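Thanks for the sequence, V.! I ran Helix-turn-helix domain-containing protein right away. Repeating your input here for the record:
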Amino acid sequence: MRRTGYRPRRPRGRYRSGGGVVDSTELLPIGRRVAYWRGRRRLSQQVLADRLGKSKSWVDKVERGVRSLDRVSTIEDIASVLRIDAAVLLGRDSRPAVVPEQAVSVELVGAVLSAYDTASANGAVLPVDQVAASVQHAWTAFQHARYPQVVTCVPGLLTAAQRVHAEDPVSGRPLLVEVYRVTAAALLKLGVVDLAWLAADRAMSVAAGDRVRVAAAAVQLGQVLRAAGRSQPAVSVLRKAAYRIAPPDLDGGPASEVSLCGTLLVQAALSAAGCGDDRAAAGLLGEAAEMAARVGDGHDRHRTGFGPTAVDLARVTAAVNLGHADDAIVWHEKAIGRDGWRWLVAEHRAAHLVDAARAYLLAGDPVNAGRLLADAEQTAPAEIRHRPAAREVVAQVARDRRAPATVTQLATSIGVT
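Predicted structure:
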């Protein structure tokens, strides 16, 4: 960022820690730091929004912590308008949340994805049943939140599935689509959005012509688009995919297709919430709830876990993303009281507990937020220890002086303090 030559006066609030002097603003969430420096510069939210080319509502959501600032370029733009260094806004948030030991495995996955067109040219073709069993094992590991294990096995699995597909496209296509899907899902958990996008795109390409496989692959594509900050395009893609797979008669339609359609509508609702569109999110979740009532809980068709409980969990995530903390907490308490809650896979339950922790944090309740994070870590340790988004929530809760000691210890153990 270009230096302006301006050196802001140090805020008055300071304290000593470890022998050094720390600005009190470093303890604030990044949105609160934006509000602090905007006030120091005597700028209204509207003026800041105009200079950034954003809406006043966008600025307000950033300052309240409803909308996260996850793009360095956006943070640099804000810092430039506020005439401060970007590091001042980042503060403690500038500490990386990624897990370094995963870098080698991820790099191998990237190498195989980059060489997909030559992988089938050489080497022995394994029996279809053997590859299918390995694909099943990868999905099982993912649903138990063993993300490092999945990423480690993906390079060999991708190569094997590509060779089977080249030898026998009919038998190989569903296998290859599923390998790309689980690859995208695991990479998303580790925060590697670019490679996850590539894997999801490959899944869509291989699935072309098979409406069910396309719909299944679209689930991961929608998640990737949302993670990449492209929520608006995600809504369009997901709705089209959902209505394409929707049976003409829901009561008489195959449960597997109803589940896929409902899952796609849930993903579209979460994307709409990411855009701040309350109305669209509510409408899409309402449609999904009708479908969920028809298929019931306790099923995992196409690795969706779709049912009434899954829709309630999605309501929590949507409410958090829209800034409705109280609504999110009410839906959370309702969802975990369902029988279907116990039937969900560990990955789904742990991911939800992290979202529910975000709701309590937004409501100013770090104690209950910490309790849910501890529950998530017990349910699926890798969800907390290897997923950057979850690690950041742990870090945010641990920064609050009211946080329980268990969260502080957890934050220390995973290296986010």
